[in-house]
Amino acid sequence: MNKNELYEKLNQLESAKDVITSEFGNVQKLIDELIEENIILKAQVKHYEELLSQNDDSITEPKESGQTSVELLQSLYEQGFHICNVSFGEHRRGGDCLFCEKFFEQLSGDDLNG
Ligand SMILES: [Zn+2]
Question: GO molecular function, one example (predicted)?
Answer without folding.
Answer: metal ion binding
